[in-house]
Amino acid sequence: MVKRSYEEFRKQRLEENKKRMEDLNLTKLAHSLKPASASPKPSPMKPPRTPRRNTELLPLRRSTRIVNNPAPVYKEVAVEFLDRHRRVYYKRRDLSNRVYASDEARANAIDRAEELQSGLEEGFPSFVKPMLQSHTTGGFWLGLPVPFCRKNLPKRDETVCLVDEDGEEYNTVYLARKNGLSGGWMGFALAHKLVDGDALVFQLVKRTQFKVVV
């Protein structure tokens, strides 16, 4: 037996493998799977940058209606209130001098007011209202007894006149939904120097008029 060299044996194996691949059509299949080009695609070239043009600063477009008007000046200016003669100003009270009534003084004022109420003419509904800080130095809001309001006062907001012992009249705003006096009550309270602990007798002498005794 003639021994073949390694090189002859290798060539024979290559030929056999090549023939076997041709029989199976593997050569054409391998070529079809290869990319069309092994080299990477070149990146697209960016277009050259054009230098900016020297632009001039142009004035903003303005409406033809205001183009000839002077530019506005934004600064704080004093506001002049109109119709000052129609408004009534009261000097702010010094709340550091508030009067705080003791329980004894408050009860004494209520007793005297109820005694006065009992001597009023019959046929005119009345009630006693003790004063608190909110009535005389705070928000100047006077809430009235709800049952009295529902029975005797208008069902909508109206002007209610308060007449003191000297016959002076003070118009106030009665708020029906809140059952109390708002605008105008402050003027009455300051004019009569009401303080915490005072007691007032309200007697309804007309539909929207009270006679008030301090």
TrEMBL record:
It comes from the Eukaryota. CDD domains: B3_DNA (cd10017). Keywords: DNA-binding, Nucleus, Transcription, Transcription regulation. PROSITE patterns: B3. Residues 127-214 form the TF-B3 domain. Residues 16-54 are annotated as: Disordered. InterPro entries: B3_DNA-bd, DNA-bd_pseudobarrel_sf, REM16-like. Pfam families: B3. SUPFAM superfamilies: DNA-binding pseudobarrel domain (SSF101936). One of its GO terms (molecular function) is DNA binding. It is found in: Nucleus. GO terms for cellular component: nucleus. Residues 16-25 have a biased composition (Basic and acidic residues). PANTHER family: B3 DOMAIN-CONTAINING PROTEIN OS06G0194400 (PTHR31391:SF99), B3 DOMAIN-CONTAINING PROTEIN OS11G0197600-RELATED (PTHR31391). This is TF-B3 domain-containing protein. It comes from Stephania japonica.
